[in-house]
Amino acid sequence: MLEAITAFAAALEHAARASANTVDNYRRDLMSLRRFLLERAAHLGRDETEIDPASITQDHIRGWLAGMMKTHRRATVQRRLSAAKAFFRYRENAGLAVNPARTMRSPRSERRLPQVLGQDDIAKLLALDADGHTPAALRDRAIIETLYSTGIRVSELVGLDWRDIDEEIGMLTVRAGKGNKDRVTPIGEPALDALFAWRRAMPIAWEAQGPVIVNLRGARLTTRSVENIVRDRITRAGVPIALTPHGLRHCFATHMLGNGADLRSIQEMLGHASLATTQRYTHVSVNHLKEVYRRAHPRA
Prior knowledge:
mainly alpha; DNA polymerase, domain 1; hpI Integrase, Chain A; three-stranded antiparallel beta sheet; 13 helices
């Protein structure tokens, strides 16, 4: 199965032009299935070191999903089933095996609304270390400012090069993000100021083709490193919600909507393929309005 997963990942990357992040996620999800099947074989007393993909049945996949439903979010289970479906569909199209996942349905989505910070909490987060002038402090501030100013994904942030920032018109070119499509999105002046303050303090010479967000040795930061930076600043700022970089994307969209931006424009800026994905932010605004009404109206 290990060889089959490697072949599928290569086909996904080259034929389907999937992003590196998507390929990594699919590979990780399929390795989870392989690990489950090896553990199941060991539990049944079979000394197996590898799994034949052609031997996998719908019952095997159901057992894998059922175990995850006890410990994982439903969205994770849905994503992993999607990875399995894509894997077996690829093998079926190649004439290698039947597709045991073809008729399987994903579990229903949880109706979970994203947690967002109020604008006062965002201001508190942005004000943290405002007087710091070390390269690390300036870089970390630029990270927060850019994520909130643009709503880009953390993978898109770490993929930015200096050539992608147009200071004159205040726009970013986000290259080959989710869906493998470039897009252009606005960036505010405070975020631009923070980015160029970081560039002046960079411990290595910057290049137009070089990365924007790097460590102090000049290597491009990973998404995990950015997540750790955001988590640390959230904690130190005393913000009540344990927000992730993706949470700042939710804040961007919710605050834009609350201040009068239309859904279509927000969809373009976020890079959503479907307006339905963007529409979940209307639920956040409606809940906020209901809470304001409940607290303010004498006969609410």
